[in-house]
Each structure stands twice: as C-alpha cells, then as structure tokens.
Design goal:
By secondary structure, the chain is mainly alpha-helical. About 50% of the residues lie in helices and about 5% in strands.
C-alpha cells in the first residue's frame, strides 16, 4: 500500500501546482523533489503578474538545471507526460516541450 500524497497548504498557487505533480507519489519521493525548495522557480509568478520574456527564459533555464540533479526526475517526467501540464517546468522540460514529447510517444506505444 502506498503512502498518501503530500498535501501542501493553499498559501500559493505554485504550492498547489507542486501538490498536483506529486499526487500519487509516495511522501518520501515527494519530499525528495528539488523543486519543492523554490516552487515558483518551476511555475513562474502567479497568473496576474507579467513576466518579461527574458526573465522567463532565464528562470526556465535555472529550473531545468535544478531538474537535471533531481532524484525524482524520472517520476516527474512520467507524471508530466500523463497530465500534460499547461505551464511550468517539469522534469527539465517546459509545458510546451512536454506536450511535444507526449505527442511523439503516445501512452499506448510500446517501448523496445
């Protein structure tokens, strides 16, 4: 039986988004996700804050570097391919890049 998913307080939209990413992943793995240290790095500012393109590109690059060192990278990638997020950086990929990967490798495709 797996441990319950971590429930984070509803203090910030980034924390709610992080919670949705870790839903179904054991507490130990969720606590190991490096994005938890600074969730806004991966999600960006809230929807009411304008983020200049250069700032966004720099933030996403740093988030991708954090993901490259994350011990739960593979679980995050698998989850992001299933849920196809609309924003943020997941397992070192932007939401748009995750969408492209998901289109190239549909869920029912066998891997040799």
């Amino acid at each position: 039986m797996s441990a319950p998913a971590v429930r984070l307080p509803d203090l910030h939209p980034a924390l709610r988004l992080l919670d949705s990413v870790t839903d179904g992943i054991s507490v130990q793995l969720a606590e190991g996700a490096l994005c938890g240290a600074d969730p806004e790095l991966h999600t960006g500012p809230d929807a009411f804050t304008d983020e200049p393109a250069d700032d966004r590109a720099a933030r996403e690059q740093v988030a991708k570097e954090v993901c490259a060192e994350c011990p739960v990278w593979a679980l995050c990638l698998a989850r992001s391919l299933r849920i196809r997020p609309e924003s943020g950086v997941w397992a070192g990929f932007t939401a748009a890049e995750i969408g492209e990967l998901a289109d190239r490798f549909p869920q029912n495709t066998a891997v040799a």
